[in-house]
Design goal:
Shape: globular
CATH architecture: Orthogonal Bundle
CATH class: Mainly Alpha
Number of helices: 15
CATH topology: Ammonium transporter fold
Order of helices and strands: HHHHHHHHHHHHHHH
């Protein structure tokens, strides 16, 4: 295999950017919960970096990218066996020096690919925590996290990201995780919410964010890290990476504007929380599209996602499911919007490994494939996630008691307080 040091450096840096997104997500969510639950939220997110990293090395990477067939990998790479040499070629890819050119050729070490994909595996289940905020046992979450990685994330990643996967071979396109990450986590979040039930007092009791500055800080970290998420998925320091980078920024910007316009029209105010949520909605929607579209398409995609996701978060009040921090409205709906818009705006002039969408002369073929990928991810993730949460609830328990919920997760689950200002006097001195 002919390795490229520049490509390798870019992917390694991108992996670090994607890992940074998980504490960014923790701040984004942590600012939106009440102060008695902020450490609980931070811990649920941070712990994903620990458990998922170990499980990824043990078995999940092998299940996602091993040669087990169209639907799941095998255990050939369990314990990271076989992939530590530069001459190793991952199943489904080709040697960059082989005839046939760069198509499906990796010019980075397999270990770099493994660690880059690990960062996706870490943040994806962490997204779910926002929907079930304020009411889930830490131990219940730990079991759900580990089992979900193996039973849900690894199979879907194999379907879509591995060249051996059935959706990949059907021609469905997902540049950086519209299905694998956002739809997958979004519909799992809905399943978990239905099992956990509503927060005590919702929707009649006001539950405002305790620190919007913390949420905006998290949004900035997410926006920054998302450049690694999307542009890093080019797996090289090249024009495609630059295109994905620019698309990511422009979609987030347009989505923020779209969200704030409709929020102003509907409520009379353009809020800081709306600006943060709109930007994230655009980042979600551009994720599957980032390396397949160009020109003004990302601005159209982002603006559309901002408007649609704002309207989607109102559904929880009409349908009665308590999605605490709007994971369903932003990640599920935004992921669906972006995945389907690949079928409209994809352009082979941007990426020769893609296909032309409806607006670029490709007809409805790609759109149909995108819809198939969306549907398959929705069904698999929802069913397995719902059953998994039900089993946990029936055994060790998924939700804290009403008494513990009233006290808060920080104290009941972790015996800590996020803020210890009670003993300070008016001048900031104790005593």
């Amino acid at each position: 295999m002919e390795l490229d040091s520049g490509n390798t450096a870019w992917v390694l840096a991108s992996g670090a950017l994607v890992l940074f997104m998980t504490p960014g997500l923790a701040f984004f969510y942590g600012g939106m919960v009440r102060s008695k639950n902020v450490l609980g939220m931070l811990m649920q997110n941070f712990f994903s970096m620990g458990l998922v990293s170990v499980l990824w090395a043990l078995v999940a990477f092998s299940l996602a990218f091993g040669d087990g067939g169209k639907f799941i990998g095998n255990f050939d790479f369990a314990g990271l066996a076989k992939i530590g040499t530069e001459t190793f070629v991952l199943p489904g890819y080709i040697d960059a020096t082989a005839s046939g050119g760069p198509n499906l050729a990796l010019t980075i070490p397999p270990l770099a690919f493994c660690l880059f994909q690990l960062m996706f595996a870490i943040i994806t289940p962490a997204l779910i925590t926002g929907a079930i905020a304020d009411r889930v046992k830490f131990r219940g979450w730990v079991v759900f996290l580990g089992a979900w990685l193996i039973l849900v994330y690894a199979p879907v990643a194999h379907w879509v990201f591995s060249p051996l996967g059935w959706l990949f071979q059907e021609g469905a396109l997902d540049f950086a995780g519209g299905t694998v990450v956002h739809i997958n986590a979004g519909i799992a979040a809905l399943a978990a919410v239905l099992v956990a039930g509503k927060r005590k007092g919702w929707p009649n009791e006001a539950m405002p964010p305790h620190s919007l500055p913390l949420t905006l800080l998290g949004t900035g970290i997410l926006w920054f890290g998302w450049f690694g998420f999307n542009a890093g998925s080019a797996l090289g320091a090249n024009n495609l990476a630059a295109q994905a980078f620019l698309n990511t920024n422009n979609a987030a910007a347009a989505a923020m504007i779209g969200w704030l316009i409709v929020e102003k029209i509907k409520t009379g105010h353009a809020t800081t929380l709306g600006g943060a949520s709109g930007a994230v909605a655009g980042l979600v929607a551009i994720t599957p599209c980032a390396g397949f579209v160009g020109g003004m398409a990302p601005i159209v995609i982002g603006f559309s996602a901002g408007v649609i996701c704002f309207l989607a978060i109102q559904l929880k009040f009409k349908l009665g499911y308590d999605d605490s921090l709007d994971v369903v409205g932003v990640h599920l709906v935004g992921g669906i919007v972006g995945s389907l818009m690949v079928g409209l705006f994809a352009d082979v002039a941007v990426n020769s490994l893609g296909a032309d969408g409806l607006f670029f002369g490709g007809g409805g073929t790609l759109l149909g494939k995108q819809a198939m990928a969306v549907g398959a991810t929705l069904v698999w993730s929802f069913v397995i996630s719902f059953v998994l949460a039900k089993v946990i609830d029936a055994t060790i328990g998924f939700r804290v008691s009403q008494e513990d919920e009233a006290v808060g997760l920080d104290l009941t689950q972790h015996a800590e307080h996020a803020y210890s200002f009670g003993d300070l006097g008016s001048m900031g001195r104790s005593g």
